[in-house]
Sequence to fold (775 residues):
Amino acid sequence: MNKKIKKPVFFIVFILIAIFSCSVYFGFQTWFGDISTTYIKSISDIRLGINIQGGVDVAFTPADGVDATDEQLDAVMETMKVRLTSLGINDSETYVDYNNDRVIVRFPWQSGETDFDPESAVEELGETAMLRFIEGTEYDESLVILEGEDVVEAYAASIANETTGGRDYVVSLEFSEDGATKFADATEELYSESGYISIWMDDTCVSSATVSAHITDGKAIIQGDFDYEEAKSLADKINSGALPFNLETASFKTISPTLGTGALNAMVLSCAIAFIAIAIYMIILYRLPGVVAVIALIGQLAGTLAVVSGYFSFMPSKTLTISGIAGIILSVGMGVDANIITCERIKEELAKGKSIDTALRNGYARAFSAVLDGNLTQIIISIVLMGAFGVPDSFFAKMLNFVFFAFGTSTDSTIYSFGLTLLTGVIFNLFMGVFCTRLMIVSLSKFKALRKKSLYTAKFKEPKKKDYLSKKKIFITISCVLVAISLVVAPFFAKIAIEFKGGTMISYTYTGELNADDVKAKVEEIAGSSVTIQTGEVFGDEENRNSITISFVSNEGLTSDKQSEITNAVQETFPDNNIEILDSNDVSPSSGKSFLMKCVMAVIFSSILLILYIAIRFKKIGGLSAGVCAIIKLLHDVIITFGAFVLLGYEINANFMAVVLTILGYSINDTIVIYDRIRENRTLMPNESLNNIVNLSISQSMRRSIRTSITTIFAMITVSVVCTISGITSILSFSIPLAIGLTVGTYSSLFFNTPIWTSWNERKTKTVKDGKNKA
Fold:
């Protein structure tokens, strides 16, 4: 196969990656005067989440005692869409959680607005819609024919098309008795004049049609060039004007643009530092293959950004959040893994005296199974993240609905974005890090000047074969002590975030001196319950502003009106401190519990999938024992990480769940590499004892595990340092525990999982032998 790869292949692949990367960054558009036409979207077209550009995340529910139907909830959703458009908000997400009777709306801060009032916007969204049928095509209250209360029902239907012989979708209307009389009178007059009737929701026209008949039976149809979805959408809009209930705010969260912009800058800087450092690291370690690996990493990064931006015409653009950027950084760190495994294999082959061609061929062939298994486990975790926390109509949410349907639509755009960028990073890593790097490095090896072995590896030292298993009692004891400590401290130090238990948290920025006790007293007076106050500093703010955070647990949560009242009160009470809202988060206890249970189910379901995958893939070395021991090891990693998370004072929140799921995938990746070595060495040394095979496999895998861990842990440390300096504390509860978890996972793969797996199989072998001896 190597012979088929010629010298020009490197330049072809390199140029293609360069063109692709540049097109992703710059995009392609043409201008005709002031009108631009976009053919290829650039990174500037990426939709930024509300935790980057600021915005609102709110969930509406029917008032107490109202049992809303799915059709009514659909109608509410359509009302929200129309009202968001009328407010000039076009980049929004709106969907329905049918299980919990909720309509969730997310929208960013309005571009260029400095005095945008999110509480007022939410209040306006939650008001019952005013639907009117008006004579003519212009809005005129003096020409109102009937209102929403006169409509009994509107629904999508189909009628025969006598011209084409097919069927056309229409909107069918049924009026009340009073409404039928009004409509009959209006259509009698307008039919003779070939007049129009337009339908308005608030002050927005949603439909306009010519009157083609005098309608007296209280039923009508609206015809147009509709498909089913368009007809249903219009019917939902009409129904919304006749909703028999008011809406209440179940949860409410805002983030200021100032906070989001600082977070974006910090994460972009982290990504740049991590990428440059990893690139230098790879080139120093692996020389020419390291250079090729960096080129592949650039292609991987470009591919991930292309998916997010909507670069590929068959895929819509995705929303990128702070956690999504963290996923990109992590996928770059983990993407190096495929290159490190392959490069280490190539070094081993060269150390055995093999030619460059043979070393390259064998290195890629023998590394492939471990690379594939490791990446597939990450894909499994990413799919679970996206399926559990994506919007209801997303592909993976539908695919995994049978697992998570009982918990409702407990979406979280930050976790979904993290899963998306991690998934795309892993997929592009498989393509770039395996296929493209092989083409490029084999092509370069055809050049005479690049045939020196020193260009492919530094001096190789055969790993020392140590008897690691002789110290297994020490390793297992250390692990058990750490697990015990983590379990003991949990009840005393664990803090549950309001997104899981319900409550409200509001953060403000201010200048000058502000007495926290005075603020506390004022807020408690309005809220009617005790609150906690935490002060801090907004880093990188030119005005040297400080922050103060007010939080309390509430059985009902604070309505947007109550939050506005608190904000107005503190601003009026302390006028000299220029108090401005930074962000707010209000969650009902029921929503929090549902979200927590879904997170737990995501962890359990992921663990089951991983056990099954390992059991199938490694059945030659005892698939069941390999799978069960891997899960014991994962519990070990999660519990210790949980202990560190708690002791560091972080709240158990969505970030922690993302950390847990990432550790599951990453730790399994490390374990798979060792299992892969054991499987290979058993085949090569069938007469060798299990202890010797395992010790050798640990020795061979250790360098790769440590080097890969260095890249991923460094990436997370970089994020942590930059975010600390920038004051973006929200991401620290993700990056620091993840760095700890990755370290624990590397240790346990080498020194905890392998010893317990070996003991299991030794005991099983002994039982079989004893049975034969007795026989």
